[in-house]
């Protein structure tokens, strides 16, 4: 079997990050112009993105199984690939919760959170693109710090969103529904930070 070029792994990481950004961008746009009646169709569109991201991960894992030499530790490759795929999966999960919890109108705090998610995914794609030059650790670590800072911002927005929800909403079903959506949005931002942490660990080795 022909030797797998190092660029294959890095290109796969880039593709996975781009799919996550595509998913975050779609989620941000549909939440800012929310139309509940379109949600089912939007779930189908999001699932196509998620399936494409899965395809990249499966191809990378298949290649890793037969690879003799890899540009970085093979366990790190597998861990990073999984972490990147998780971001897209978690973003798809936001739409699922909005659908089965029957969200009919958008809350401003949710728009803040999805905006931070999109910002985090943009920073993540820049970070992933720098893995090609992982020996230049200073630039990489600055991007890691940027993602950590966004996650901290999201935590603060999440706490405020939950406080506002529980002190201003009298409908227990709405409280339950938005509790799930807020938690899922925060999980998405946390997933971006997990990618940053994995890359930071790779650089520190």
Structural features, described:
The protein has 205 residues and is mostly helical. It is 82% helix and 0% strand. It has six helices and no strands. It is globular, with a radius of gyration of 18 Å. The two termini are 30 Å apart. The model has no long low-confidence stretch (mean pLDDT 93).
- Judged by helices, strands and strand pairing, the structural class is mainly alpha
Strand content: under 5%
Note the gap between the termini. 30 Å
Q: What are the secondary-structure elements, in order, as H or E?
A: HHHHHH
Biggest pleated sheet: none
Task: Give the number of DSSP strands.
Answer: 0
Can you give the mean pLDDT?
93
Q: What best-fitting shape do the alpha-carbon axes yield?
A: globular
What's the alpha carbon Rg, rounded to whole Å? 18 Å
Show unreliable segments. Answer: none
Helix share, percent: over 70%
Number of helices: 6
Which SSEs are present, and which pair or pack?
Layout: H1 6-32, H2 39-66, H3 74-100, H4 108-129, H5 137-168, H6 172-204
Helix pairs in contact: 1-2, 1-3, 1-4, 2-3, 3-6, 4-5, 4-6, 5-6
């Amino acid at each position: 079997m022909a030797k797998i070029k190092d660029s294959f792994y890095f290109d796969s990481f880039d593709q996975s990050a781009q799919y996550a950004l595509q998913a975050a961008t779609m989620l941000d746009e549909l939440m800012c112009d929310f139309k509940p009646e379109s949600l089912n169709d939007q779930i189908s569109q999001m699932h196509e993105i998620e399936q494409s991201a899965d395809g990249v991960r499966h191809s990378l894992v298949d290649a890793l199984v037969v690879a003799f030499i890899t540009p970085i530790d093979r366990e790190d490759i597998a861990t990073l690939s999984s972490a990147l795929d998780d971001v897209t999966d978690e973003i798809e999960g936001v739409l699922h919760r909005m659908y089965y919890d029957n969200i009919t109108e958008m809350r401003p705090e949710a728009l803040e959170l999805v905006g931070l998610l999109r910002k985090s995914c943009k920073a993540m794609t820049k970070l992933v693109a720098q893995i090609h030059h992982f020996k230049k650790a200073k630039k990489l670590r600055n991007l890691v710090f940027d993602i950590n800072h966004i996650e901290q911002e999201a935590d603060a927005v999440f706490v405020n969103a939950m406080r506002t929800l529980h002190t201003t909403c009298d409908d227990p079903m709405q409280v339950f529904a938005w509790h799930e959506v807020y938690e899922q949005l925060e999980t998405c931002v946390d997933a971006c930070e997990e990618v940053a942490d994995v890359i930071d660990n790779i650089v520190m080795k």
